[in-house]
Specification:
- This protein is of the alpha+beta class and 137 residues long.
- It folds into 2 domains: 3-86, Orthogonal Bundle (Arc Repressor Mutant, subunit A); 93-134, no CATH class.
- It is 34% helix and 20% strand.
- The chain has helices at 3-13, 20-30, 40-50, 57-70, and strands at residues 37-38, 74-79, 82-86, 93-97, 102-106, 131-134.
- The strands form 2 sheets. It has a 3-stranded antiparallel beta sheet with strand order 1-3-2. A 3-stranded mixed beta sheet has the order 5-4-6, with no helix packed on it.
- Helix 1 packs across helix 2.
- The longest helix is centred in the middle third of the chain and has 14 residues, at 57-70.
- The chain is globular and about 50 Å long.
């Protein structure tokens, strides 16, 4: 299956019409060997700089959120008004640098098992993901 048909399937299964702009978004997000973190504004800049393509913020926002809802992207909320998205959707941990505003992965072998000593009635824990905030000394 070619990347283009994979992108078409992702778009269609997300309920999005496969326009030229959305295919460019897919190319930036999924046609890479390495996973990465981004904000919607970051993605707009990446598309503009790397692809020399102007795509509206609304189109990028709606596409990213549709992909997140479908499970193709993971959302990491930093605070009430800042979210990053991650192309690595597996359960993993992160460092967030308060100075540089950079989000980086922490591998599982660098974090000991986290023990939760409480539960919510009628709920079960499905994952534990650690966000470690760091800053310059």
């Amino acid at each position: 299956m070619t990347n283009n048909s994979i992108f078409l399937n992702k778009l269609r299964s997300s309920g999005l019409r496969p326009t030229k702009q959305r295919l460019k978004i897919c190319e930036v997000l999924f046609d890479t060997e390495k996973t990465f973190h981004f904000t919607v504004n970051d993605l707009v800049k990446i598309i503009d700089e790397k692809m020399n393509e102007k795509i509206s913020l609304a189109t990028v926002y709606n596409t990213v959120h549709a992909f997140h809802k479908k499970g193709y992207l993971k959302e990491i909320s930093i605070n009430s008004d800042k979210s990053y998205f991650d192309t690595n959707t597996k359960i993993h941990h992160h460092f967030y640098d308060n100075n540089t505003k950079e989000l980086t992965d922490i591998s599982d072998d660098q974090v000991e098992k986290v023990k939760i000593n409480t539960s919510l009635p009628g709920k079960k824990i499905t994952s534990v993901e650690v966000l470690v905030r760091v800053e310059n000394k």
